[in-house]
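Would you mind writing out a protein's amino acid sequence and the numbers that encode its backbone to help me picture the idea?
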Amino acid sequence: MQNRKNIVSAKSTKMVLDELQPIQGRLGFWTLLNCRTGRYLHSRVNPEAEAEQWVAAQGEGDGKKPRRIAIYGFGLGYHVAAAARFCPGVAISVFDLDYRPFDLSMQLNLLLPSSVSVYTGERAEAALLQWLDKYTEADAFWVHRPSLDLLQDRHVRVRQILEGLLSLRQSYQRFGAQMWENWLQNEPYRNGDLALSDYLTRVGNPTAVVVLGTGPSLDPAIPYINRWREKALVLAAGSALKPLIRHGKRSDAVVISDPQHYVLQQVDVGDQPSLPPLLYLPTVHPAVLQAYGGERFVVAQDGMDYVADWAKSRGEVPVLTGGSVLTLALGVALRTKARKVLFAGADFAYTHGRRHAAHSHNYDWDATIPIGESRTVEANDGGFAVTTQALDTFRLFVEGAIRRNPEVTFFNTGTGAKIEGAKWLPFDQVENELSA
């Protein structure tokens, strides 16, 4: 039945159809024609069957229920109703900045499941961001692609968020089989190595943590790192290992998350007298663990059932990963309960035409932004930075983590993309801030 208490609509007056035309098919089902694009929001023949196929394709119809489901795009609600049938008992939130399809569904008396909350119009953006602030890998976020065509030009930020989430989801689907295979092969490592809780006990309660990415802003930060280590815990992405070694610097740990074999290049550093501890996900490639010459600590990631079950058996609490090594390092940093977190080399952009710091293993081949993927965002220095959909998605995850942790003060360095909620701090002022 319709659950009107769960409806937050920005407009209740008579709908103005504009370019949307309701059409009833020969089986009696209604759909909407987007006259501007010439595409239908739902099948003209059997939108209910189409909706069931759409939900099944999201990957949640295999018996594993997500904690929560968010859907962007209500349309006439066929796919929303199908989601409620596939995932009974799961709270579903639907967001749509265009109020018209939802209002039409109400006029047509189409049913809305009681487990569904709907947010439409301009209020939908704030509700969407609030939902994403609590988003973890245990949740599901689905995008009804035909509804994206209804977004207006002024909604560029929402479009970027949605496209980024789609890209991140595709990445998880692409590497899911590889991660499972790595997990199986890593059994002796993950059961024999120490855990994140052991590492956190060792480092105690640092007042500050420096998270080192491998963006171009790492280069000017490197001369300061040894002095920063005197006042803060320094966690580095695995791809920063070679640049640090080349300059005679060291972090307090190296973090690796990617399941692919090529990550071996990040730790292939020859004979080194001492390497920092490695914090790794149990789904990384086993060749990385075999090759690393330092101590290893396994970090369970959130959102994967088989990892969560294993972590529970060891008394470990999974960490949010955010889909990148830097966001995983941030998750570890927050587990230390430090009062301050500082980013260096976290450009999330092509700073001075480069995506990575010098001497990192992929420095030479990543200077060119993939065609059609560039976008412009605000930079730390007040100008603009060129970035990509993927990098922007990771930055948005960091911004969400900042909002979820108001008790922590965040700082950002360099001239990359601005991270909302992180105060910009020049390199030569970092040491004073860490001492304060």
Remarks:
- The two ends are 58 Å apart (CA to CA).
- The chain has two domains: 4-151, 178-435.
- The chain has 17 helices and 19 strands.
- The CA atoms of residues 70 and 131 lie 8 Å apart.
